[in-house]
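Q: Here's a chain of 88 amino acids. Please give me its 3D structure as tokens.
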Amino acid sequence: IDALKDIIDKVSSELGKSVVFFADVLNEQKVIFIAKAKENAVNCGMLVKNAAIITGGNGGGRPDFAQAGGKDASKVDEALQAVKESIK
């Protein structure tokens, strides 16, 4: 998780106004979602929470940086699609 946070920080630092959202599948079962918003009104806590709920989990965090986890990695594509729609 710490490595993923470092990657998200590095990607975000090279962008201007942005939302960076990552999903990491662990052991082909669990999934971790991490989001970071920079100069953006998107609420990362709600993004990761909604993605986690779709995958049978929960979580959240600050509006500018958040993480959550899910138990059903088979629904990652569905969760990512929901995140895309939320950002639009």
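Q: Can you summarize the key feature?
A: The mean pLDDT is 92.
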